[in-house]
């Protein structure tokens, strides 16, 4: 009976992911979701909220839309059958994802959890489904694609948002209201000097 509210809570998270084309439900059951620090091969690190499915990891940016509501903006889709996992056994929180195709995208990615035991739970799920026939079938049927960049405020309109705690106590999720509009630049009026009074009189003479 405990699985029902757990599944309902997972669906609430999934329904607040935006920025994609396709049917997200073809990914199957949501296995885990947590905060991570994701570092690409150029050394650029970003705080991201990751969703783990049998054959996919969805990498999302958390966007706060009100004081207690946030949505997830999909930034990347990691197709697990196309990557290899490298564990950092000397670090309880870090592992890497290497793409099987050399020099693909921003790979390798270094994934750093913010809490102990999160990494072990994720790696256990990934390894369990690595050769799962059903997971491979879901991989083949998946039609999920990143949505081209458009006005994010318009994309957020139908979403209700969900309460989510920051990854760390000192992290602040920026508040970006939906109705925010770019301010138009106000240009200074050009100064037009008055014609010399004497010149006016000369023209009239």
What's the short version?
The chain is 21% helix and 29% strand. With 205 residues, the chain is an alpha+beta fold.
What does this structure look like?
- The protein has 205 residues and is α+β, with helices and mostly antiparallel strands.
- It has a single domain, classed as PH-domain like.
- The chain is built from five helices and ten strands.
- It has an eight-stranded mixed beta sheet with strand order 1-6-5-4-3-9-8-7, covered by helices on one side.
- Pfam families: SOS1_NGEF_PH (PF22697).
Helix-strand layout with pairing:
Layout: H1 3-14, E1 17-18, E2 20-21, E3 32-39, E4 45-52, E5 56-66, E6 69-79, E7 83-87, E8 94-99, E9 109-113, H2 118-128, H3 133-141, E10 145-146, H4 152-155, H5 197-204
Parallel strand pairs: 1-6
Antiparallel strand pairs: 2-10, 3-4, 3-9, 4-5, 5-6, 7-8, 8-9
Write a concise keyword list for the protein shown above:
205 residues, PH-domain like, two-stranded antiparallel ribbon, globular
Structural class: alpha+beta
In spatial order, strands of the major sheet run 1-6-5-4-3-9-8-7
Mean pLDDT: 82
| Overall spatial form | globular
What is the number of helical segments per DSSP (H or I, 4+ residues)? 5
Determine the strand fraction and express it as a percent band: 25-35%
Strand runs, count: 10
The CATH level-2 architecture is identified as: Roll
The unreliable regions are 177-188, 199-205
Order of helices and strands: HEEEEEEEEEHHEHH
Strand count, sense and barrel status of the largest sheet are:
8 strands, mixed
For this structure, what is the CATH homologous superfamily? Pleckstrin-homology domain (PH domain)/Phosphotyrosine-binding domain (PTB)
Number of domains: 1
Give helix % range: 10-25%
Distance between the termini: 102 Å
Using the coordinates shown, work out and report the CATH topology.
Answer: PH-domain like
Rg calc: 25 Å
Question: Quick one: CATH class?
Answer: Mainly Beta
């Amino acid at each position: 009976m405990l699985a029902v509210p757990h599944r309902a809570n997972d669906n609430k998270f999934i329904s607040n992911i935006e920025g994609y084309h396709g049917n997200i439900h073809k990914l199957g059951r949501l296995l885990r979701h947590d905060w991570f620090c994701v570092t690409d091969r150029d050394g650029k690190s970003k705080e991201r909220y990751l969703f783990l499915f049998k054959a996919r990891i969805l990498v999302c940016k958390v966007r706060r839309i009100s004081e207690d509501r946030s949505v997830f903006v999909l930034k990347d889709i990691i197709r697990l059958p196309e990557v290899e996992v490298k564990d950092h056994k000397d670090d309880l929180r870090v592992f890497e994802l290497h793409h099987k195709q050399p020099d693909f995208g921003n790979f390798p990615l270094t994934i750093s959890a913010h809490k102990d035991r999160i990494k072990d739970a994720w790696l256990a799920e990934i390894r369990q489904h690595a050769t799962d026939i059903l997971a491979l079938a879901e991989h083949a049927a998946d039609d999920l694609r990143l949505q081209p960049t458009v006005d994010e405020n318009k994309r957020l309109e139908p979403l209700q948002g969900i309460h989510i705690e920051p990854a760390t106590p000192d992290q602040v999720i920026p508040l970006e209201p939906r109705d925010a509009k770019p301010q138009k630049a106000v240009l200074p009026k050009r100064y037009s000097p008055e014609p010399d009074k004497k010149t006016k009189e000369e023209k009239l003479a």
